[in-house]
């Protein structure tokens, strides 16, 4: 119940109320991994990295092998300016859980931030193999291919994203930027 109410508040763009609901749920069920992860994710998305780190550290202490807690630990390392540590952590996670799309996705994003576009493409491809309709993964792949001068492949991924939701304004904007990058100004107007 508290997860659903918290999720409702997130959809309504009210993360403070979502945090309150997740905390209420955790007060009743402190071991709920789902609520813990949702609360940590909400903290991360609202810039409350200290709260996210404290809670994630507690999860890791309780369950050192928890894959999502380890992925979140890597995200925190990257947020705090240590991409090399994040990369090492994520590679360790992938050794233990090679089928986890989130680990591949986050590693792809961190590699992209460090300028390793080939590595980013490779990890994002691994992520999309495991989660073919993941909107964030498809969007990241479209961006990487756009940024490396391959508009045809970028169009393929943004096309898949638009098939999931043709009215997605973020996907439409991305499609427009791909066309702009390809100097297809008339095509870009179709999306803006």
Q: What value does the Rg take, in angstroms? A: 18 Å
Helical residue percent?
over 70%
SS element count, helices: 12
Low-confidence stretches: none
Largest sheet: none
Mean pLDDT: 93
* Tertiary shape: globular
Q: Helix/strand-derived class?
A: mainly alpha
Order of helices and strands: HHHHHHHHHHHH
- Gap from first CA to last CA: 39 Å
Strand content bin: under 5%
- The number of E-state strands comes to 0
Write a compact overview of the structure shown:
This protein is mainly alpha-helical and 192 residues long.
What would you note in describing this structure?
- With 192 residues, the protein is mainly α.
- Helix content is 78%, strand content 0%.
- It contains 12 helices and no strands.
- Helix 2 (15-28) runs antiparallel to helix 3 and helix 4 runs antiparallel to helix 5 (67-79).
- The longest helix is centred in the first third of the chain and has 14 residues, at 15-28.
- The protein starts with a helix and ends with a helix.
- 37% of the residues are buried.
């Amino acid at each position: 119940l508290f997860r659903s109410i918290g999720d409702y508040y997130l959809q309504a763009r009210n993360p403070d109320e979502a945090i309150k609901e997740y905390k209420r749920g955790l007060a009743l069920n402190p071991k709920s991994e789902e609520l813990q992860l949702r609360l940590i994710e909400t903290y991360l998305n609202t810039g409350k990295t200290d709260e996210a780190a404290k809670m994630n550290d507690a999860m890791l202490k309780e369950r050192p092998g928890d894959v999502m807690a380890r992925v979140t630990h890597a995200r925190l390392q990257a947020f705090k300016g240590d991409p090399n540590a994040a990369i090492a952590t994520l590679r360790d996670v992938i050794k233990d859980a090679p089928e986890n799309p989130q680990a591949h996705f986050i590693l792809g994003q961190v590699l992209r931030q460090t300028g390793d576009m080939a590595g980013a493409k490779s990890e994002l491809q691994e992520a999309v193999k495991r989660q073919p309709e993941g909107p964030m993964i498809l969007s990241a792949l479209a961006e990487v291919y756009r940024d490396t001068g391959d508009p045809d492949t970028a169009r393929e991924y943004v096309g898949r994203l638009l098939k999931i939701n043709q009215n997605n304004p973020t996907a439409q904007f991305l499609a427009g930027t791909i066309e702009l990058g390809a100097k297809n100004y008339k095509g870009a107007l179709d999306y803006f």
